[in-house]
Design goal:
By secondary structure, this protein is an alpha+beta fold. Strand 8 and strand 9 form a beta hairpin. Its main location: nucleus.
């Protein structure tokens, strides 16, 4: 369920929001790479943060008699304590929170994507639930996807605090916290009059307040890439772009290495737009004709046909006949839109031709297929500039014969074609934002920024003692007939408690990254001996080198997927080197330099390809598992990666990586193996790369590293000589959308994956590649049923 609102009128005395939180038992969240805004943030690795995050959200939920509600609330996170207010506590001293609780290490936060509310606008919804009990859940909605992501980061930092407290205070303390947890079905403690409650029944479920669309402007620090070339990732791509033409300040490129990537020619237009990616994203997806006609000369009307989920919809449109007036007939089209927001804040929008039963062919119109295209929006931070800038890339596929004809003759008809109009949309966006400076200005921040001498703006509410309520309890309770979150103030005059807050932040919390450019060293000239030398140094630090290595005979281990005998061997796997991946170098924390990866630390010994009606966990414990064999028990350590692919049926891609020597327990790998789930979630990283396949699949998958523990739910099983990581790809709406696209082309795709443990401290650098795998055109029909 989602919430929407219109552009804000002059700010009223009451709060203006960004999205709202549902009543949920917030007891678990992912671990963040970059924190949501905090004043006085901690430094790298061991720094301690003394700040929190706050802002307006929409609280979504269903009350006890089944009516949906969405209320404007002010949310505050301090340490692992979360409080919800009706008004901004910084402007209303002494106000009591209407909800209060703590984030536990079992909280999960999922981005549900873009959803439309009753007033016709879109909001971006977050779902909270307990990983151990998913019946405890709730939702909030935010004004922009970027803001939603920053709230996720804020909750992930709170989860790190909870995990740190669990380690320092012990399991018993955590258990006692949970034992004091209030009943989820109970109402929040407040004095009520029964008759007054009945009198308010007439107002229940009448719909949301008039919502004001204002971003909370939670500030997170991100690494911003200043490469204006357009393509940037952690793996090398096969595209070879050649500059063709410039018009209206926009560069046009042709991919001359796309012979195997599709049936058409791949083109792209690239330009710099003076706005942040969140704003550009909303403009590109907007269906408002009056706004769209200011930058899109091709489209006459757009209509939303169906919303599949928060990341996927179907749209019907017509072309503008005044522009392409040489057409003899009116033309319409149907296309689908899928969008992805990466962990680096970049957006990818996939647009493909589609059909829909609600939109059959229309009399007087000729149904056409739109060009398959993608939008890519990436934040820029030009040196010496504080104004928001975004690199916009619009990529599309067109007929080779038409493109070749235009290149040879420079036909004037190309300037009146659909392809040209699509490529020109980037120029239109640039001019649109230049002519509307109000759209590019930063929204007024509603984030609390306490001074060092006044670090407790709301100290009367968050006390020394930890609240006994889990946050999802604090959000999800509601048993009385009246709406628990009604905006009446008759009970807000509770006497404030006195006290101070101790900000207990995690000493190993992830460092805030300054807005500096990422440098990439393409050390392609280094020879194999240098890479082997670096790999030997990594092995020396991560493994116990004074022990006798175990000889691993790959002939002793056989998975259900065959090892490739040649590059053309379909439905097989191989183990590529790390030279096609970019990883953090020794000086990354100071200059953000990345270097070419070396040889993997662990050896890939087998790959299994299973299918099952239900999700299959704990593969290593199965009696017939490779890990349970006598040969495997002699191996010092085995890492099992179980990628759980949602489909009908479900698929499991299981990779087994072996170490020839015992793992050094004090090394990064050793701490990862025996660490907490929160630590693993914050470090377990994967770099994908589509080596061969349809170009749109390449754009959807990308080449950027992904912290899997932040993107999807990862479960860890540590026993004997192995660690198994079950990666539930179906736990994320975004991941399900991407996998759905990939499975449609999987038999023609060659994909490389690199597995790493992210280095966040100087002593952990440079990074190293833990393991790699290449999957050659996997065939779903060949998966073994279990």
């Amino acid at each position: 369920m989602a919430t929407t609102t219109t552009k804000p009128p002059p700010a009223p005395a009451t709060p203006s929001p960004a999205g709202e939180v549902s009543e949920v038992e917030l007891s678990e969240a992912g671990s963040p790479d970059v924190g949501s805004q905090s004043s006085g943030s901690g430094g790298s690795g061991s720094g301690r943060s003394t700040a929190g995050s706050s802002g307006w959200v929409y609280h979504l939920g269903v009350n006890s008699i089944g009516h949906e509600y969405r209320h404007l609330r002010f949310l505050v996170i301090r340490g692992k304590t979360v409080a919800m207010y009706k008004r901004d506590p910084s402007k209303n001293p002494g106000i009591q929170p209407i909800r209060k609780g703590v984030v536990s290490h079992t909280l999960t936060v999922e981005e549900l994507g873009r959803q439309i509310m009753n007033n016709g606008e879109f909001y971006y919804v977050l779902r909270f639930y307990n990983r151990l009990d998913q019946t405890k859940k709730g939702e909030i909605a935010c004004a922009t996807p970027g803001e939603a992501r920053k709230w996720v980061e804020a909750f992930e930092q709170a989860k790190q605090q909870a995990d740190y407290d669990l380690m320092t205070r012990g399991v018993g303390w955590n258990r006692s916290q949970n034992e004091n947890e209030l009943n989820l079905d109970g109402h929040r403690p407040r004095v009520r009059r029964y008759a007054h409650g009945l009198g308010k029944l007439v107002r229940i479920g009448k719909g949301p307040e008039k919502l004001l669309r204002q971003s909370s402007d939670l500030q997170s620090l991100e690494i911003i890439n200043t490469n204006f070339g357009g393509d940037s990732g952690d793996a090398f791509e096969a595209h070879e772009w050649r500059y063709v033409r410039t018009f209206n300040g926009i560069r046009i490129f042709e991919d001359i290495a796309n012979a195997k990537g599709g049936k058409g020619v791949l083109l792209k237009s690239v330009g710099v737009v003076g706005a942040n990616p969140d704003t550009v994203f909303e403009v590109v997806l907007s269906l408002d004709k009056h706004k769209r006609c200011e930058w899109d000369m091709l489209t006459a009307d757009l209509e939303l046909v169906e919303t599949i989920d928060g990341y996927y919809d179907v749209v019907y449109g017509t072309y503008e006949p005044k522009y392409l007036n040489w057409w003899k007939t009116k033309k319409d089209f149907v296309f689908s839109r899928q969008w992805i927001r990466g962990q680096d804040g970049a957006y990818t929008i996939l647009q493909t031709p589609a059909s829909h039963m609600k939109k059959p062919t229309r009399q007087g119109y000729e149904r056409t297929k739109v060009n398959s295209s993608t939008w890519e929006l990436r934040r820029l931070n030009p040196p010496g500039s504080s104004t928001p800038k975004c690199l916009v890339t619009h990529m599309l596929e067109m007929t080779p014969s038409f493109w070749d004809r235009w290149k040879r003759r420079h036909s004037a008809n190309f300037d009146r074609s659909i392809a040209f109009a699509l490529l020109s949309q980037v120029a239109g966006l640039r001019e649109y934002f230049a002519a509307n400076p109000a759209l590019t200005s930063d929204s007024p921040s509603t984030v609390l920024k306490p001074k060092a001498s006044d670090s407790l703006i709301i100290h009367s509410e968050l006390e020394d003692s930890e609240p006994n309520d889990e946050f999802y309890d604090a959000l999800a309770r509601g048993e009385s007939f009246e709406d628990e979150d009604s905006d009446d103030d008759e009970e807000d005059d509770v006497t404030p408690k006195t006290g101070k807050v101790k900000f207990k932040n995690v000493s190993w919390a992830i460092a805030g990254l300054a807005l500096k450019p990422t440098k990439v060293i393409l050390d392609m000239s280094q020879d194999n001996s240098l890479r082997r030398k670096r790999s030997a140094l990594v092995e020396k630090s991560e493994l116990v080198t004074n022990s006798t290595p175990v000889i691993i005979d790959s002939n002793q281990f056989h998975g259900t997927l065959e090892q490739a005998k040649s590059e053309d061997h379909s439905n097989s796997w191989s183990e590529p080197g790390g030279e096609k991946f970019m990883i953090r170098g020794k000086t990354y924390l100071t200059d953000y330099t990345k270097v070419v990866g070396g040889d993997p630390l662990l050896k890939l010994i087998a790959v299994d390809w299973f299918k099952a009606d239900e999700r299959f966990d704990s593969v290593a414990l199965h009696p017939k598992s490779l890990v349970q064999s006598e040969a495997a028990k002699k191996i010092p350590f085995i890492l099992v990666i179980n990628l759980q692919v949602p489909a009908k049926p479900n698929y499991n891609l299981v990779m087994y990586y072996a170490a020839e020597r015992p793992v050094n327990k004090d090394s990064l790998l050793g701490r990862f193996i025996d660490g907490t789930d929160a630590f693993r979630d914050a470090r377990f990283k994967l770099i994908p790369s589509i080596v061969e396949g349809y170009w749109m699949v390449k754009r959807a998958v990308g080449t950027k590293a992904c912290l899997l523990g932040k993107a999807v739910t990862c479960n860890y099983l540590r026993q004997d000589n192995f660690l198994e990581i079950d990666v539930d790809i179906g736990s994320s709406s975004v991941a399900r959308s991407i996998i759905g696209l990939v499975l449609g082309y999987v038999t023609s795709i060659v994909v490389d994956l690199a597995i790493l443990i992210e280095a966040k401290e100087e002593k952990e650098l440079p990074e190293y590649i833990l393991g790699t795998v290449r999957l050659n055109r996997a065939n779903p029909d060949s998966a073994v049923r279990i």
